[in-house]
Amino acid sequence: VKRQQNEGLLLDLKAEWQDTAVLYAAQANPTQLIEQLCDKGDRPSLDLAYNCWLENALLTNPRLVSEKTFIRLQECCYQQLEQYMVEGNWKEADEYNYRMMIQVLGKRYGDRFTSEELITFPCADLLRLDRLWGQHSKGKFGFSIQKDIYVKCGGQLDGEYYEKPFVRFI
């Protein structure tokens, strides 16, 4: 694929072959592949695009994929998240919200957040996610809604864990 410059072969891989595209991304500049996957715009394509970006970002210094391409990928993913919300598919939206937060932090799917990462999570993304949830759920879901409920349960907003309010909250 690299020698023949034929990234198009990687666009419609079955799930069991997607690691091949990620391997390619670790060895070449996957910008064009990521752009083409963004053009497709479906969830599997966006997931593969992010995995290619991440693998390349972790293994190359300096990064080969431009910030502009990563920003486009993020925008496409926010659109996917919003589509789940528009459809009222809250379970998918919740799962994809996690995926968005992982992407913002440059982590792998399945990774957990540290307390420090949650406290220092980029405000612009946190506000955007909260705004999407609040807008599409008519104020029923979102981080600010959860924060209000947690405070009403006796929780404090100091980054510490308090068992009694948390148990009431959940």
Search tags:
single chain; 170 residues; mainly alpha; elongated
Description:
The protein starts with 17 loop residues before the first helix and ends with a helix. The chain is elongated, with a radius of gyration of 18 Å. With 170 residues, the chain is mostly helical. Helix content is 64%, strand content 0%. The chain is built from nine helices and no strands. Helix 1 (18-27) runs parallel beside helix 3 (43-59).
Task: Return Rg in Å.
Answer: 18 Å
Structural shape: elongated
Total of helices: 9
Low-confidence runs: none
Strand content: under 5%
Q: Can you write the helix and strand succession as a string?
A: HHHHHHHHH
Distance between the termini: 50 Å
Mean pLDDT: 92
Number of strands: 0
Please bin the fraction of helical residues: 55-70%
Going by helix content, strand content and strand pairing, the class is: mainly alpha
- Assembly type of the chains comes to single chain
Largest sheet features: none
